[in-house]
Design a protein that fits this description.
single chain, alpha+beta, outer membrane lipoprotein receptor (LolB), chain A, Metallo-beta-lactamase, Chain A, 14-stranded antiparallel sheet, seven-stranded mixed sheet, 29 strands, globular
Length: 507
């Protein structure tokens, strides 16, 4: 999902600048080893091998805001359990989410019916999720690398994990006056890649920040703050943890129980241990003459449409890591023609993270008009950690805003982008229609379930989408979701009828 913009984002930026100015005050060098030893003793980290902590609170779905001016969707977390084996570099995060927002605006599993349990796990270089009793691996080499780094980051972002990682690295220390209090700043790099800094206040870890790059936001920080330390069996641990990604909350929990040196067993399942991570190979699926669906990973798709003298592409999911290979495949499928347009269905990060890669090719970004100020703002942020193709090219991205609809035609082929406002997932959604081929491309309103007998998720959004198609009187045979596989429009109609019948029965 995407962070808030406007006055709220400006306020956040001013706070960041103010903190930076405070930290820029003259600092006095300090021995990092002595500071870390003192912190380890105070926290009880020296002999801490494993830990399990639990509590309750809230989490927020990054990149899935309702619109560019809204906060990220918030969910209640009545059950939150984290188990860590520091020596093995292993972590298990087991949480239960429930719906809290009504109406459920935005993305990220909304609306949740009942409880949604999510378990993600890391052990060394193996990362997987638990779906029921089954271990599900990262889909490909890129996802595995990202998952491992992200989950290791969660170990570093605990007070004891931070101290242990800093002691194992070539950490440096300095003292600074922060809002009138002298505190110690510990800095080091993890994996020779990630810059991490933490603030020690009276030998307790008060705050940790990790720098990384985000495809949409550029240079970004992930931070954790800790308060309300209590003693749990000789180990001091915070009773309040707040995490922020890109400056906006993603977790806010109250810790109620901590078990130092608990019996933490995070074994790699046999199917995960046996798997070999291999790069994903894009195998285009021909939908019609001159129209291809490209599975850029196991679930996300880009659609390429050939015109007489150019190419139009629909959607750039996730990142440059997905869009760059897609562009290579498109150029082989349709040689000698430039990619002139890239249509973006909405601003959620899993649908917009690769847009900059197409902009670097010179493609015009077509999106709903109200999205443009957001993209212009976040794309102005620095990109020094991992410069992408657009930042290296020096190109200025070109946007075109859709109001109502936009027709693309070369005399033989016609493509129409429609804005269907009012969807609870995102109010600025576009769908893309090919009249001659009777194909309709959409995102997040209809995701076909793996089991044909299972109703699709997000029923209110599905009904809204269906009603918009009917109102526009579009003659549709095939629906092409950006997520998952194509389906017939009859399948969409039956899913809507099933939902409506269930609502009538409930009443």
């Amino acid at each position: 999902m995407l962070p808030r913009t406007g006055a709220i984002m400006k306020k956040s930026l001013l706070v960041t600048i103010a903190v930076a100015m405070l930290w820029s005050m003259p600092a006095r060098a300090q021995n990092a080893s002595a500071a870390l030893d003192a912190a380890a003793r105070a926290l009880g980290a020296t002999n801490l091998k494993t830990i399990e902590f639990s509590g309750r609170g809230y989490d927020f779905m990054f990149g899935q805001a309702y619109d560019p001016t809204s906060p990220w969707p918030r969910f209640a977390v009545p059950r939150y359990i984290v188990s860590i084996d520091y020596a093995a570099g292993a972590i298990r995060d087991d949480r239960t989410r429930t719906q809290i927002q009504n109406p459920p605006l935005g993305g990220g599993f909304q609306p949740i019916a009942g409880e949604l349990r999510q378990i993600w796990v890391l052990n060394g270089t193996r990362a997987w999720n638990m779906v029921g009793q089954n271990a599900v691996p990262a889909e490909d080499e890129r996802d595995l690398r990202t998952a491992v780094e992200g989950r290791l980051g969660q170990i570093w972002l605990t007070p004891h994990g931070f101290i242990k990682a800093a002691m194992a690295a070539n950490a440096t220390a300095r003292t600074e006056n922060i809002r009138g209090v002298t505190k110690t700043i510990i800095s080091f790099r993890a994996l020779n890649k990630f810059k991490i800094e933490g603030v020690l206040n009276e030998n307790l870890v008060e705050w940790i920040q990790l720098w990384f790059d985000n495809p949409l936001l550029g240079d970004t920080t992930f931070e954790a703050s800790f308060s309300g330390y209590k003693d749990f069996g000789g180990v001091k641990f915070p009773t309040r943890i707040i995490q922020r990604d890109g400056g906006y909350p993603v977790l806010d929990v109250t810790i109620t129980d901590v078990k130092p040196n608990a019996a933490v067993a995070i074994d790699v399942p046999a199917n995960i241990a046996a798997m070999k991570a291999e790069p994903h190979v894009i195998k285009p699926e021909k939908l019609a003459e001159g129209v291809w669906s490209l599975p850029v990973d196991e679930r996300d798709h880009t659609v390429a449409i050939e015109f007489r003298d150019h190419i139009l592409v629909v959607e750039a999911p996730d990142s440059e890591a997905l869009s760059a290979p897609a562009i290579d495949v498109i150029k082989k499928l349709i040689p000698g023609k430039p990619i002139r347009y890239i249509i973006n269905t909405h601003t959620h990060s899993d649908h917009a993270g690769g847009l900059r890669t197409y902009a670097a090719e010179g493609a015009t970004i077509v999106t709903q008009r109200d999205n443009i100020p957001y993209f212009e703002q976040v794309w102005s942020y620095p990109r020094t950690i991992n410069p992408d193709r657009l930042s290296k090219s020096g190109r200025k991205p070109v946007f075109e805003g859709v109001v109502g609809s936009r027709i693309f035609s070369d005399g033989s082929r016609q493509v129409i982008a429609y804005h269907y406002p009012g969807n609870m997932h995102n109010p600025n959604m576009l769908m893309v229609y090919l009249p001659k081929e009777r194909i309709l491309i959409e995102a997040d309103s209809y995701n076909p379930p793996a089991n044909a007998n299972t109703p699709p998720a997000g029923f209110p959004n599905l009904v809204h989408f269906y009603e918009a198609v009917e109102r526009l009187r579009l003659d549709v045979d095939q629906v092409v979701p950006i997520h998952d596989r194509p389906a017939t429009y009859d399948a969409v109609r039956k899913a809507v009828e099933t939902f409506r019948d269930s609502q009538l029965s409930y009443k």
